[in-house]
Write a structure and sequence with these properties.
Helices cover 35% and strands 22% of the residues. It is α/β, with parallel strands linked by helices. Strands 1, 2, 3, 4, 5, 6, 7 and 8 form an eight-stranded mixed sheet that branches. The longest helix has 16 residues. It is globular, with a radius of gyration of 17 Å. The two termini are 22 Å apart. 26% of the residues are buried.
Length: 171
């Protein structure tokens, strides 16, 4: 499942539609493995979190069994990258709304090689193969407009620019 992790003011309406689609699929698994972006590159390139997380809807516990299984494969618990990030925490109210007792496996990811990404995918699949989990990846769909590096040409409305950038993906 892929969903945006942008700021609430501009991405949460899109995120809400994504979670509505997820809700229409039936019961949520008890655990969600969340692959979130580590924008700042602080800490390990693949950083697990083992602490409970807080959202406006309360505490979300970590699935300690899966975190332990991943540490046994060589991945490390490193909270430093998670402390200043929003990509995982922005998902929590939506997940809690769908499944109030959901547990998570927060996986913060920064730059990595294709080989490392493939190994991570294989390891996650191996650990999750006998468990009822949902894989959730977060993304920035686009950084465009005032304050970002992607700027529409002078005189073009931001929405037109974004749609124009999406055209190749629509084909």
């Amino acid at each position: 499942f892929l969903v945006s992790h942008g700021a609430s003011c501009d991405s949460f309406p899109v995120v809400a539609h994504a979670y509505s689609l997820l809700a229409s699929q039936g019961a949520m698994p008890p655990t969600v493995i969340i692959l979130g972006t580590n924008h700042r590159g602080i800490g390990a390139s693949v950083a697990l979190s083992a602490r409970p997380w807080l959202s406006p809807l309360g505490q979300v516990d970590v699935d300690a069994d899966i975190v332990t299984a991943l540490t046994q494969l060589g991945y490390i618990v490193d909270e430093t990258g998670h402390n200043q990030e929003h990509s995982i925490e922005n998902q929590l109210p939506f997940l809690q709304h769908l499944a109030p007792r959901v547990r998570i496996v927060p996986v913060g990811i920064t730059c990595m090689s294709l080989q490392s990404a493939q190994q991570l995918a294989q390891d996650l699949l191996a650990v999750a193969s006998s468990r009822n989990v949902l894989f959730l990846a977060t993304t920035d769909y686009m950084h465009a407009g005032e304050g970002y590096y992607d700027q529409p040409p002078r005189g073009m409305h931001l929405h037109t620019f974004i749609r124009q950038c999406d055209e190749p993906a629509d084909r």
